[in-house]
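Supplementary Methods, section 5.1.

A reviewer requested that the exact input to the structure prediction be made available. We therefore reproduce it here, unchanged from the version used in the analyses.
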Amino acid sequence: MKYLVYGMRSVAISDVVSVIGRVLHASFEERDSSYKGGVYYRYSDKDGWSVSVESHWRDEDGILAKPEFSEYSVLVYLNEAPSVVEEKMDAIPSLSLLQSREF
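The structure derived from this sequence is encoded token-by-token as follows.
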């Protein structure tokens, strides 16, 4: 299983969803979760991979969800995506790969 985290600085979450949706030909579903700081967007592919676009939020104690990436206002989580999807994500201007893990 491969887990990637991308970030974008100083942009609206809706702009990030629009760009990624165009690049991946994906239609995102708006969701709401207090665990994820409120409204976020998710796309799940029929082949089992998924992408989630979330505002980089602070909890009730003021701690960021990913403090090590404090300069990014939007975080994008990519799970189990094929390499062609990773390549498309890597080609998006101003989207930075922040973390890559394999389990």
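Residues 6 and 68 are 12 Å apart (CA to CA). These observations are discussed further in the main text.
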